[in-house]
Amino acid sequence: MHPMVKPALRRAWRNLQYVQFGTTPAHAVVLGPVDTTTGSLLGLFDGTRGLGLLREEARALGLPEGRMEALVARLAEAGLLDDAAAGDPAADALRKEDGALDRLRADLASLSVVHREPGGAIRRLAARRSMRVQVRGAGRVGASIAALLSASGVGRVEVLDGDRVEPWDVAPGGLPAQAVGERRDAAARRLVSRAAPAGRAPRTVPRAGRPAGSEPGLSLVVVAPRDGLSAYAPDPLTADDWVATGTPHLYAGVIEATGVVGPLVLPGGTACARCLDLERVDRDPAWPRMLAQWRSGRRSRVPACDLGLATAAAGLAAAHALAFLDGELPTSTGTRWETSLPLLDWRAQRIAPHPDCACGAAGRGEGERTSEAGAEQDTMAG
Questions:
Q1: Under a CB-based contact definition with an 8 Å cutoff, are residues 362 and 368 in contact?
Q2: Which of 83, 103, 137 is where one domain is finished?
Q3: pTM of the full predicted structure?
Q4: 34-93 pLDDT per residue, tens
Q5: For 3, what's the count of Cα atoms within 13 Å in the CB-facing half-sphere?
Q6: CA dist list (Å): 172 to 45, 106, 264, 347
Q7: Shortest CA distance to 315 belongs to which of 152, 105, 106?
Q8: Which of 106, 188, 329, 375 lies in disulfide reach of 333, CB 3.0 to 4.6 Å?
Q9: Reduced to 3 states, what is the DSSP secondary structure of residue 135?
Q10: CATH code of the domain in which 143 resides
């Protein structure tokens, strides 16, 4: 072990005995009392020394036997300690990937703040390389989500869409202007490859028990259709296969002047698209009639999709997707977040499993994971 006080947390001495790590209330920790000599030893926890060398440094400073070990334990308990040498085969492979880790160092620093245990950040970042995410839709929202996931180290990001890129599909961080006229799926594949940390799609590291070269299962499907209605009122028939196979899926999009992120559906554990549909019918008997008209009626060739709103929705959706892939349950789990122009105040709508839905979520605890991907993530997070 090479102990390192998490460098992403800014530190400041509150007085002569107490030091605060972190600025914001969400992650700030105050450590103390710390005497001047122990503070000097604390400054040596920079990841360049192993435990043996730190023990020698502690003796040279005149600290009593066991003080260094006690400091390591205190830092670890406070969630302030990282291990510069931590890893596993996936982490070692990431370190060897030419240029990849340099591109991901800011993400690694963020993960070190979020996850308390030493070495947790590098293990989670490396685990993303073995994951396969499918993004359905390559408009302003979907293409940006795909690029963000790839740039964040997700090993395989597939984008499904049809037709050709239109001028209004172009967005910074999404499909470029030179892609206009090309097939959307082909343009999205190039975008994903360019966004990958090493300038190309990362190699997939096989999970334990899976033969090398075998097809990894889907860790997550992100449904981000160019037609925002399909994100706001998702078709239950489209989601039936994901519910049946236990594939987690997250909805995101823009309809008119409203951005939507969620719900994240954990099949059998949280409300699905059919639950949402049944709940709307309970509240508004006219809903099925109106929805049929919206789906079958004449559509504008150019859907309303404000660029700032689309970027905000894509960023939030990508952040929620990554939190899930890293083993957490983001606030979009069983919940839909909405924001509308011009005020842009995000609102949360909790979606309860419907008792008449065959997905079975109403009879189980919300948030319970039933997919293989979720179970693997839970093991990693523990």
A1: no
A2: 83
A3: 0.88
A4: 999 999 999 999 999 999 999 999 999 999 999 999 999 999 999 999 998 887 888 888
A5: 23
A6: 40, 21, 26, 26
A7: 152
A8: 329
A9: strand
A10: 3.40.50.720
